Amino acid sequence: MLVPSLVIMVSTAFAVCLTAFLLRRRKGHKVPDLPKGVEMAIGAVSGLFVFSFAFLAVNAQGQLDTARKATLAEAGALKDVYFVAQGLPSQERDDIRQRVVGYTHSVIDSEWPAMHEGHASESTVRGLDSLRLAVYRMPVPDEGSRAVRTEVSQRLQDVYVARRERLAQKDAEVPPPILSLMVGSGVVTLVFFALFGKPASRTHYLLLGVGAAGFAYMIYLVLALNHPYAGGISVGPAAYAEALLRYHQLTL
Question: Which residues does the chain have with pLDDT short of 50?
Fold first, then answer.
């Protein structure tokens, strides 16, 4: 994220400043002032860019937070299932725990890459369904086992709820019309900077470059936030990797 953003910012600033320098050198110091209406129009376009950027950034950040909370909730519920299974008879306990571990691995290895493409993993959901079926068919010879199975079922229901919330975000993206509006207005503003920003000193060139870099970074940031599970800024399966570590600790 840091290196690509810096490359884009520096490249954009350099391109804008170079264009302005070449135009100034070609036309000399006698550069006519822009009509007042043009300046007002560019100001309106710049304001539109800032407004659309703020809207999209807030929207994308909200989707990212929702996806992150869903993954944490699902991983936490899986750890609860693994922990509560301790109260089951040894054979049933080992079977349930093995299925929980298998599902967690499947989320990391199969479903996360699938969510990058906008769909769920069939093998992963089958693993979760087989876990639920194993709990449903579990023999309960005494009252204690029955109580533990009930609690395992409740925690497993939490897994399903959190999974649905996680998958609901796999298609989330910032609204394309507003994204197009932001990118278009940003490009128009950058072109204006390059064609009509004719600085007369190094300080002016510096300010022109900083402005161009800022616009380029805002466009890059929104595009990086565009998908909760893919892109430069996204939610990864770290919560499930931490859950696997916790399973190992509970087994010791």
Answer: none
Q: Do 166 and 108 share a domain, yes or no?
A: yes
Residue 227: φ, ψ to 5°: -135, 130
pLDDT of residue 44: 82
Whether residues 122 and 247 fall in one domain? yes
Domain, as residue range, for 130: 72-171+242-251
Residue 9 sits in the same domain as residue 88: no
165-183 confidence digits (pLDDT tens): 999 988 877 778 888 888 8
| Residue carrying structure tokens 């919560």 | 239
Angle at 17 between CA 27 and CA 12, to 5 degrees: 140
pTM for this predicted structure: 0.80
| 128 and 182 fall within a common domain | no
